[in-house]
Amino acid sequence: MVTAFVMIHCEAQRISDVAQAVAELPHVAEVYSVTGDVDIIAVLRVTAYESLDEAVPGGIARIPGVTSTRTVLAFRRFARRDLEAGYDLGLS
């Protein structure tokens, strides 16, 4: 499973519409409106790297109001239980 974070810039008056349209696309797990440099962040989960072509330039980037995207791929996931297990010495 490939997880990707897509940072989306869009026209200010269309943020809500863009976020809703992104949320309806295949492979999109979560969508957030955020503060900072970008307007929206989408979390994508695909089974193959090649599926990102369909999801980002073929999907998200074509939504009216989207002005640009930047995609970051995750290569390792850390969760609280993973971190706690890493520090567990078995002394409890």
Strand order of the largest sheet: 2-3-1-4
CATH topology (level 3) name: Alpha-Beta Plaits
Average pLDDT figure: 90
The radius of gyration over CA amounts to 16 Å
* CATH homolog superfamily: Lrp/AsnC effector binding domain/regulation of amino acid metabolism (RAM) domain
Quote the distance from N terminus to C terminus: 34 Å
The biggest sheet, with number of strands, parallel, antiparallel or mixed sense and barrel status, is: 4 strands, antiparallel
Tell me what you see in this structure.
The protein has three helices and four strands; from the N terminus they run E-H-E-E-H-E-H. It has one domain (2-87): Alpha-Beta Plaits (2-Layer Sandwich). The protein has a four-stranded antiparallel β-sheet with strand order 2-3-1-4. It has helices at residues 15-23, 51-55, 80-87; strands spanning 2-10, 28-33, 40-46, 66-73. Strand 2 (28-33) and strand 3 form a beta hairpin. By secondary structure, the chain is an alpha+beta fold.
What are the main properties of this structure?
3 helices, about 25% helix, alpha+beta, Alpha-Beta Plaits, 4-stranded antiparallel β-sheet, about 90 residues
Q: What is the gist of this entry?
A:
By secondary structure, the protein is of the alpha+beta class. It has 3 helices and 4 strands.
Give the SSE map.
Layout lengths: L1 E9 L4 H9 L4 E6 L6 E7 L4 H5 L10 E8 L6 H8 L5
Antiparallel strand pairs: 1-3, 1-4, 2-3
